[in-house]
């Protein structure tokens, strides 16, 4: 049991970042690159575009029609409620992004309630293209009791049985709907020795989305030469 616990700790500390998702068609992958100064896997920015030239932003309802096909195992034990769950998560995502921009200490953007054609406004369009819920039953077994469950945890980690979320996003100018930024990223749940997130279906997904929301704001305030740190693959917090 002790050796299993040590192995689990080693796997958790090493952690792993999710690989990129396949393009779902919400953004054009041509020209998108990995920009080491940003925490997203793929980025494209129109030459000459500067966030500093804009003062307002409208966050559109989050799209879910580009969801990549998932098998029943990826949908987890809650597969019958998956469509309803995704709609709820889409609303959560929009609210999280709006909240992050509203609470930006720099007060860069006024978050608009309705679309506009203003010359100093941007439109943020985001699509959730993959959502894999937590495997609640297996996660519960992982702590029953903890040292026995560690064996389950190790097997699940090695098998890459984990909650993941992926998005594609476009930022457009409000006055003429020109695309000026495209983004894509896929993240896996943060590993933890003990985590209560995995005991609810979408807590891992919500944590990832909250991190993205913060990173979107950081990107809009990015200074020349500044590197925005990516999220860590593991956490010491159990929630």
Compact summary:
The chain has 239 residues and is α/β, with parallel strands linked by helices.
> What is the chain-wise order of helices and strands?
HEEHHEEHHEEH
CATH architecture label name: 3-Layer(aba) Sandwich
Choose one word for the global shape: globular
Terminal residue distance:
25 Å
At the first level of CATH, the class is Alpha Beta
How many strands? 6
Mean pLDDT: 80
Strand order of the largest sheet: 1-6-5-4-2-3
Task: Summarize the biggest pleated sheet.
Answer: 6 strands, mixed
Could you tell me the radius of gyration in angstroms? 19 Å
The CATH topology annotation reads as Rossmann fold
Secondary structural class: alpha/beta
Q: How many separate domains make up the residues? A: 1
Report the helical percentage. Answer: 25-40%
- Taking pLDDT < 50 over at least 5 consecutive residues as the criterion, the unreliable ranges are 1-15, 136-160, 192-199, 234-239
Number of helices: 6
Relative strand content: 15-25%
